User: Fold this.
Amino acid sequence: MSELQPVGPPLWLLLELTYRCPLQCAFCYNPLDFAANDTELPTDDWLRVLNEARALGAVQLGLSGGEPMLRKDVETIAGEAHRLGFYSNLITSGVGLTEHRLTALKLAGLDHIQLSFQDSTREVNDFLSNARTFELKRRVATWIKAHAYPMVVNCVIHRINIDRIGEVIALADDIGAEYLELANAQYYSWAFLNRSQLLPSREQLARAEQVVATWRERLDGRMRILFVTPDYYEQRPKRCMNGWGSTFMTVTPDGTALPCHTAKMLPGFDFPNVRSSSISDIWYRSAAFNRFRGTAWMKEPCASCDEREQDLGGCRCQAFLLANDAAAADPVCAKSAYRGVVTQAVEFAQRANTIEQPLIFRRRENSQIV
Amino acid sequence: MSDILATHRPHLRKGFRLQWEEAQGAHVLLYPEGMVKLNRSAGEIMIRCDGATTFAELVCDLERAFSRNHLAEEVRGFLAHAFAQRWIDFS
Assistant:
């Protein structure tokens, strides 16, 4: 029984340094109410979090946001991470990265930079993020290469750009990417709000998979392509974050510690804060991190399912969003009583044209309304 | 890669880092967005992939360190796997 297994250390730490971001991507996973709280931890608190998490065994580190480069102390944080033995990843839109800062980050010991694109064309890239960033991203890519970082490109895929997935791969190859993440949007937060405009059709998805397969062959291992399908098209849920409280910890700008970066939406939780609790207490002893560990919390159909150890019931946020119960089976699962909600969204996506409705961009004004 | 020669010098690819993790009791290979926990023999082979040591020297060194003979095929098999995974390259 997995609930009796000892809890391993948090191996993967994601620091969301700020919610500030010049981009307004319509699929952002930051909370809808991000503007309600402008608090950001000061540098010293981030450094303490790094020290405490590393002492427990955390080794992979993501520096994210918002746009993390809007913080002036990324170099300091990356330097401390390097000193402690973390493998550090800067997850950025490229905005705020200058050649000067890139050099400083390299000296500080940052291990790699993941650069996001929203599309292969300037028009759609800039439209989806409601910001002119395409040319800047291309420039940043050349600096990343010049500083001998591994080049990791990420592009969130959805109905609006999926038909140009081949061009996105060509762009990534052109700028010398070694890794390309083509991650279909998953439907939480802002992407959930815009789901009807973002969920691709079955046909679009099948075509995209074909294009990816052709490119993989052509590239012959020169670039690794990771293609993540939307959960909605699966029959079984994915293990969320490798299991609640099993591997990952996210710390939000104000210091709230979460088992995954969208968990803050779940009602009835009192998530601990790194300003008042140690990382060790949060990870091993807090009610929030223990709530969905293992399988003892499960209801039917999960509780008696022979696949429960594999997928651990799927994603708690998806269960809450679609079944209004964070302890339910992930409705993506064909065995879920709520699968119909997913099927309905998928069927809607098969129509030639979805309802004309503007995208809701992730911006402060919208954050205060929705 | 089945044609690993005695003079080939394996090394980690750019962006990869190998380190001992006390909390996991293992050597761990770290790379962008990923992490592989290595078993003992894999860890012992990988720490010798320094770009200076040849395949032949690496095998000799392991045989000496573990008082074993005829490790060449096992090491060759693992290095072929590591190459296919794009963890290492040869010079």
Residues 163 and 204 of chain A are 7 Å apart (CA to CA).
